[in-house]
Specification:
Function: Provides the (R)-glutamate required for cell wall biosynthesis.
Organism: Richelia sinica FACHB-800
CATH class of the largest domain: Alpha Beta
EC number: 5.1.1.3
Pfam family, one: Asp_Glu_race
Distance between the termini: 17 Å
Helix content: 40-55%
Number of helices: 13
Radius of gyration: 18 Å
Number of domains: 2
Protein name: Glutamate racemase
Order of helices and strands: EHEHEHEHHEHEHHEHHEHEHEHE
CATH topology of the largest domain: Rossmann fold
Largest sheet: 7 strands, mixed
Strand order of the largest sheet: 1-11-10-3-2-4-5
CATH architecture of the largest domain: 3-Layer(aba) Sandwich
Shape: globular
Number of strands: 11
């Protein structure tokens, strides 16, 4: 189903004997999940991480549920082979369209970003805006999660199809990106929101742009922070928190390793070594 250009890990015996030392898998369509990775480095510095970016098939936000489900299964099957102890689905689109299905199919915990983000938003405000990919916005996942927690909260969602491609192309400081962001935020500002949720893990990269356009009293909610907090709680509950020095983070992509490595330098502050993983039974556009 897939092949890897890098040799397989020789740590299987260690993981079998000490499951807490096994890595946490983190995946996204591209660089967006690096916002989650940075939070893991901050909150869980002893955990080993395998990060996968499905860069050959991004953006996810314009895909159908059937496509997203196939992509997620490809990635989770690969991560299962890597002996992960837990997976963070660092992708709002996948969390909205596939999380509840695949949770029933794998024997390791899988965390999504939507519920932790919704809980944090409800704690902060009453008039909540959500910026998201088209698929996440269409799913109504954030609205449903927020209203389930507090039915009195008002929620407005905006689909932002251009954000992910602009971020992946490192065009954050392009004047065009500011104009696009202004158009997306206008209806939310008109509704006088007091809280804005990043409904895609790519979007925290746009924080300087968004902050410059929003009224100063609007609070920004980054679900990446809160999903990692939930991850720490889950590790403690299962007795799986690692106490040994971590292994170096392993990076893999389905697209161009060099392009991802360049983005990694921008967002992580170092150039990661990146391997390529091929999903031979999946259609790649």
């Amino acid at each position: 189903m897939y092949s890897s250009s890098i040799f397989e890990s020789n740590l299987d015996n260690i993981f079998a004997q000490e499951p807490a030392r096994a890595p946490i898998g983190v995946f996204d369509s591209g660089v967006g999940g690096l916002t989650v990775l940075r939070q893991i480095y901050k909150q869980l510095p002893k955990e080993s991480i395998i990060y996968f970016g499905d860069t050959a098939r991004l953006p996810y936000g314009i895909r159908s549920q059937a496509e997203i489900l196939q992509f997620v299964r490809d990635i989770l099957n690969w991560m299962q082979q890597c002996r992960v102890k837990m997976v963070i689905m660092a992708c709002n689109t996948s969390s909205a369209l596939a999380l509840e299905i695949v949770r029933q199919e794998y024997n390791f915990p899988i965390l999504g970003v939507i519920l932790p983000g919704a809980k944090a938003a409800v704690q902060q405000g009453q008039r909540i805006g959500v910026i998201a990919t088209p698929a996440t916005a269409k799913s109504n996942a954030y609205r449903q999660a927020i209203v389930e927690i507090n039915p009195d909260v008002q929620v407005w969602q905006v689909s932002c199809p251009e954000f992910v491609p602009l971020i992946e192309q490192n065009r954050i400081h392009d004047p065009y990106t500011t104009e696009v962001a202004r158009a997306y935020l206008e209806p939310l500002i008109h509704q006088e929101i007091d809280t804005l949720v990043y409904g895609c893990t790519h979007y925290p990269h746009l924080a300087p742009v968004l902050r410059s356009l929003l009224p100063p009293q609007v609070k920004l909610i980054d679900p990446a922070i809160h999903v990692v907090t939930a991850c720490a709680q889950e590790l403690d509950l299962l007795g799986l928190r690692n106490t040994h020095p971590p292994q170096p983070t392993r990076f893999a992509v389905s697209g161009c390793p060099q392009q991802f490595a360049q983005s990694g330098l921008l967002w992580l502050g170092y150039t990661p070594m990146v391997e390529q993983v091929y999903f031979t039974d999946a259609a790649v556009s």
